[in-house]
Amino acid sequence: MKRFYKTTSVEAVPGGFDVRLDNRPIRSPAKAPLVFKSWPLAQAVAAEWEAQADEIDPNAMPLMQLASTAVDLIGKGREAIVDGVAAYAETDLLCYRAEHPQTLVERQTQAWQPLLDWAALRFDAPLHVNAGLMPKPQPADALRALRHAVEAYDDWTLSALQTATGACGSLIVALALIEGRIDAEEAFAVSQIDETFQIESWGEDPEATKRRANLRADITACRRFVDLLRV
Q1: Which parts of the chain sit beneath pLDDT 50?
Q2: Which H or E run includes 159?
Q3: Contact of 126 with 113, CB cutoff 8 Å
Q4: Beta strand residue intervals within 14-157, DSSP E
Q5: Dihedral of the CA atoms 177, 16, 19, 185 (nearest 10)?
Q6: CB–CB of 48/10 below 8 Å?
Q7: Is 74 left (phi over 0), alpha (psi -120 to 50) or beta?
Q8: How would you class 43 by CB atoms within 10 Å of its CB: exposed for 0-12, middle for 13-18, buried for 19 or more?
Q9: Which helix (H) or strand (E) covers residue 9, if one does?
Q10: Which of 2, 11, 52, 223 is least crowded, fewest Cβ atoms below 10 Å from its Cβ?
């Protein structure tokens, strides 16, 4: 789609703030109103629109995408999305450790165990750690507690949590990111320990490089979205 507007602005409205293009409020892809409760987040989304060149690239507007997801998808199918995000805890990345080589085992333990310990205290949700890749059941009480944690977030924060969980392959890492326990670069690093180890051993192909760059960008956008939302 070609750029169809000349100016961007942010205006106060009942309930929050509008982002406007040529003084017309933007809407979600499903044509729903987008009212931002945070002035800084509205300004950041307006900046994404302002930065567009002659052709509009939705992939260059991650904050706009997260806001649209909150309104169009989570607002209409919240329970199913909560279920999907919470389900990551059943086979969370941090709970499945390598058996060898020892260097990788140590890296995983040093990076992952503190986050599992944090989640056990923060959410009363201790998870079991397994050696190898065979799935093993987690305690029902812990899974229930983590689902309640996911369910407690508002739609906008849940939008960021959903994207971060998928990008990290771990609900625990995503929760730590959203809660401010770790920053975006740490979340990317701990979720990519296995891949980074393989790259150190065998090198990295262009597709893997592109994929990792996209994951890092998604994780960074999620943390920024939540930070701006809470200002």
Answers
A1: none
A2: helix 155-168
A3: no
A4: 16-21, 24-25, 96-97, 130-131
A5: -10
A6: no
A7: alpha
A8: middle
A9: strand 8-13
A10: 2
Output the CA angle 21-226-148, nearest 5 degrees: 130
In the three-class reduction of DSSP (H, G, I as helix; E, B as strand; rest coil), residue 3 is classed as coil
Contact 25, 5 (CB under 8 A): no
46-61 burial by CB neighbour count: b if 16+ within 10 A, else e?
A: bebbeebeeeeeeeeb
Pairwise CA distance, residues 57 & 71, whole Å: 20
Q: Using CA atoms, how far apart are residues 43 and 59, in angstroms rounded to an integer?
A: 18
**pLDDT on residue 135:** 83
Give me the pLDDT at residue 133, please.
77
**Cα separation, 222 vs 220, whole angstroms:** 5
Tokens of 172: 């625990």
Bond before 101 cis per omega within 30 degrees: yes
Residues contacting 109, CB < 8 A, separation 6+: 97
Residues 6+ apart with CB under 8 A from 187: 164, 168, 173, 174, 176, 177, 219, 223
Which pLDDT score, from 0 to 100, does residue 145 have? 98
pTM: 0.96
What's the pLDDT score for residue 190? 98
- DSSP-based three-state secondary structure for 126: coil
How long a stretch of residues is the chain?
231
100 close to 124: Cβ distance less than 8 angstroms: no
Distance in angstroms (rounded) separating the CA atoms of residues 165 and 85: 7
204 token code pair: 């990295």
Unique residue bearing structure tokens 């890749």: 133
